[in-house]
Model the fold of this input.
Amino acid sequence: MNIQPVRPKWKSQITDRQRFINQMHYKPIDRCFNMEFGYWKENYNLWPIFKNNGITNNAEADLFFNFDKFEIVSGVDWLNPPFEQKVIEIKGNKKNLQNSDGLLAEVPVDGHDTIPHFLQSPVKTPDDWKKIKQERLIINDARKLDVEELIKKHPPGRDYPLGIYCGSMIGKIRNMLTFEGLAYACFDYPDMVEDMVETSCQLLENVLDQVLGKIDFDFASGWEDICFKSGPIVSLDFFKNVVVPRYKRISSKLHQHNIDIWYTDCDGDVRPILPMLLESGITCLFPFEVNCCTHPGRLLDEYGKELRIMGGFDKMALGEGPQAIKKYMESLVSYVERGGYIPFCDHRCPPNIKQQDYLYYLDLKEKMFGISD
Done:
């Protein structure tokens, strides 16, 4: 990818890899790890700095802003083959399409970023699930990774942190069943839902067994998105009895290969399930939505060095301009200095953020958390 950076890389005294490892383990660092989570699609059309330089996606933006390198290896841990993505019907400014999980979803014709309105799930009964499981969730050679090629791509002497993707135990199931469908299924078909979680766990174990011990990973990552502003969308008993045991199986494999940093991407208020996440071996929250939850410092104070957080810079403050940005940045200083915390926007940076305010934010972050002249 031939991207000419618009900003110099932050000054460094150690590699990005060593910096990330040290920061996540409360060890001395030369400066804060410098990363962001990305941007809404609209930003690439609205911000002149992106438009004028041909930057069209988050991977290009990471290179363009010269952030510290951060990569993740993943395997085929869900539907294979996925459902065909196709447009079913167009009505005015809306279109109904089938997505890769087989859901019928209503989305805007113009393609702007928004949460789809799901109309129908491919799984309504245990028979539906049984059919999909037999057709699309079998562990076979189609799920085999080219480990030798991955080793060539990410050699042992690399200078950047590398993670192994640990998927989802319940988030992808929520995607397939829909929010409402999962809520009903937990009561109507609890055995089916548990089998879905077990299947997800087995598929992920298949990926891990192929690469752990062959590639030296620095962390694990995951994705759940099972919380909203009022907490988790499944009961705490369900989470404890069905999800946690599968997390622990994954955690056991990671720990056998000295991977003790495992973050999961979960929006919303994660506080009700946080003790269970920590018990399960998930040690880090990402990207930590402030307004659905709380200031990241409150949980870092409460849980101490048991917890790490990546993200947690309030996007609302980012949208209020330099004064609010500076005030919020100052509230994070002690946590960056302590370790176990890497600040960046608490989700994809939305299009209401002005370009000049975002660049001010990047400059201020470097001034406060980079190497001073």
